[in-house]
Specification:
By secondary structure, the protein is of the alpha/beta class. The protein contains 14 helices and 17 strands. The strands form four sheets. Strands 1, 2, 3, 4, 5, 6, 7, 8 and 9 form a nine-stranded mixed beta sheet that branches. Strands 12-13-14-15 form a four-stranded antiparallel beta sheet, covered by helices on one side. Helix 2 crosses helix 8, helix 7 packs parallel to helix 8 and helix 8 runs antiparallel to helix 12. The N terminus is likely disordered. One 2-acetamido-2-deoxy-beta-D-glucopyranose binds next to strand 4.
Length: 500
């Protein structure tokens, strides 16, 4: 399970600190990014995240393995990349992706080990038998606006969960639907549902929410977003919705404190994927993979607002939580292949800086029509992306398509006006098969050095690292796009002679 690296000292410390029972509160934002003063964005106020950060280790290099909602949540809750757990794309409606029936998820393993499990908010994974929770208020039986964005409702549900007479340790997963876009699904509330519950006519009221408003001039425009009035207004709306999540996090942490669980609960905050802007969500570039990650463990020395450079993956969440509860990962097989976790427990980072410098990525779909398989490895400052079906144009999702930012980008491109963007739509749609970037010299990842003779050895080394991880995680795409996997033959990748 990757806990071999945990020193005896860490185990002892945990045993002393949490002898009274140890619980976990996992908070996940929906498409949340670095729009927070915790990550030095001074244009937005997130006082509750800042409070949490003061008693957390702040990870500067945390990454999702997949930049899409359901696959990322599946990877968080199983420790297995999407190609190994089977949830290749979105779970809802016609997309209909699910994990394989035999996968043993975190809630399943915790429940079998006598831990009470709860989920409030957006679940977005299936099937139910793989992801069972004892207490569940999700889109499956409630309105996702209520359980995912109405922070008063969320507060009351957290209270209900914590008031239980059940004495078992708990795992509570609070999955905000904020700050996801809603211009595609609930346009009446604005592009980020930033008006939902703000007390204006027809918007209803969320009693615990004091909306924070931002002007387009106030926002910070990240390097990967066009600096245009449309994109700035879009970001200002996103900031307001982030403010609602931030106040919601404050309420959830207050409930934890009132219930007397301040000193016996590991609190983790992160997000599922990059922000829903160009080059963000659905991409394996930095802007699609990098995530905020705060881990607060009562009494741990580095949980006092220290910043860690150690690389963390959201594939590490399952091993971390199993480690916290001292539960070993079981030996089992899916489709005859042994399943092992390639992630690691992050608890040692709460003790001392760790030499972690590598994370992997694997994406196949977002929406059902958005097949664009990619695999990636980031090692130190180097990022390698393998675009398996690179001859197809990169696909665009429905809610991002109608966003003011993307509509404006399309309009400007069609009419030949300046886009104020760091890429062209042409270069965004049509990618090279292999992309290699040196982020220390090229932080926005625009200069592909895969063909540069000076980086040839590094290119080969990173291809080999990626291939090794794909074999370890039983990736069905291991031989694509120029070969077919024939497991009974040796070598198992058989050439297609398809001119690639
Ligand atoms: C914020 O900026 C300070 C000062 O430059 C730096 O020390 C710190 O690491 C930054 N924090 C994060 C999370 O990047
Ligand atoms: C949702 O399901 C949970 C059980 O998982 C149940 O306790 C709760 O009452 C249900 N809520 C609604 C609104 O049906
Ligand atoms: C939010 O939830 C509270 C408590 O259930 C309710 O009183 C309020 O009307 C809800 N607000 C909206 C906008 O639905
Ligand atoms: C938690 O620990 C802090 C600092 O040690 C202490 O002040 C506080 O009273 C403790 N809270 C509970 C609920 O035990
Ligand atoms: C883009 O152009 C269309 C057609 O001219 C127009 O209706 C729309 O408002 C424009 N959108 C943006 C964001 O500029």
């Amino acid at each position: 399970m990757g806990s071999q690296g945990v020193s005896a000292c860490v185990w002892l410390l945990c045993a002393v600190l949490v002898a009274d029972g140890k619980n976990v509160l996992l908070i996940i934002g929906d498409d949340a990014g670095f729009e927070s003063d915790v990550y030095n964005n001074t244009a937005i106020q997130t006082p509750h995240l800042r409070e949490l950060a003061k008693r957390s280790l702040i990870f500067k290099n945390a990454f999702t393995s997949v930049s899409s909602c359901s696959p990322s949540r599946g990877a968080i809750l199983t420790g297995l990349p999407q190609h190994q757990n089977g949830i290749y794309g979105l779970h809802q409606d016609v997309h209909h992706f699910n994990s394989f029936d035999d996968v043993r998820s975190l809630p399943l393993l915790l429940s079998q080990a006598g831990i009470r499990t709860g989920i409030i908010g957006k679940k977005h994974v299936g099937p139910e038998t793989v992801y069972p929770f004892d207490f569940a208020y999700t889109e499956e039986n409630s309105s996702v606006l209520q359980v995912g964005r109405n922070i008063t409702r969320i507060k009351l549900l957290v209270r209900k969960f914590l008031q239980s007479k059940d004495q078992r340790p708990f795992f509570l997963y609070v999955a905000f639907h904020d700050p996801h876009r809603c211009g595609h699904s609930q346009p009446q509330y604005g592009p980020f549902c930033e008006k939902f519950g703000n007390g204006e006519p027809g918007m209803g009221r969320i009693p615990d929410w004091t909306p924070q408003y931002y002007t387009p001039e106030q926002v910070q425009v990240p390097y990967f977003i066009p600096d245009t009035p449309s994109a700035r207004a879009d970001l200002a709306a996103q900031y307001t919705t982030i403010g609602r999540m931030d106040q919601g996090i404050g309420l959830v942490l207050d409930e934890l404190r009132s219930a007397g669980h301040d000193n016996d609960t590991l609190v983790i905050f992160s997000s599922d994927n990059g922000i829903p802007f160009p080059n963000g969500r659905t991409n394996l570039y930095w802007s699609g993979r990098a995530e905020p990650l705060l881990i607060s463990s009562p009494g741990q020395p580095r949980c006092r607002g220290e910043v860690s450079q150690s690389f963390a993956s959201l594939l590490d969440i399952t091993p971390t939580i199993l480690d916290w509860f001292s539960i070993p990962y079981p030996d089992y097989k899916v489709f005859g292949k042994s399943v092992t976790l390639t992630g690691k427990s992050l608890l040692p980072a709460l003790e001392a800086e760790q030499p972690w410098t590598t994370v992997y990525g694997s994406q196949s779909h977002h929406e059902i029509t958005m097949y664009y398989p990619m695999r990636s490895v980031q090692h130190m400052q180097y990022l390698l992306i393998h675009n398996l079906n690179f001859k197809m144009p990169f696909p665009i999702d429905q809610d991002f398509y109608v966003s003011p930012t993307f509509q404006d980008l399309l309009n400007r491109t069609i009419s030949g006006r300046p886009t104020n963007w760091f890429k062209t739509l042409h270069s965004y749609y049509l990618r090279d098969r292999w992309e290699l970037y040196d982020r220390s010299k090229d932080p926005s990842e625009v200069k592909n050095i895969a063909g540069d003779p000076g980086y040839h050895d590094l290119f080969l080394t990173m291809q080999e690292m990626l291939r090794k991880w794909q074999w370890e995680t039983s990736d069905p795409w291991i031989c694509a796009p120029d070969g077919v996997l024939e497991e009974k033959l040796d070598p198992p990748c058989r050439p297609l002679h398809n001119e690639l």
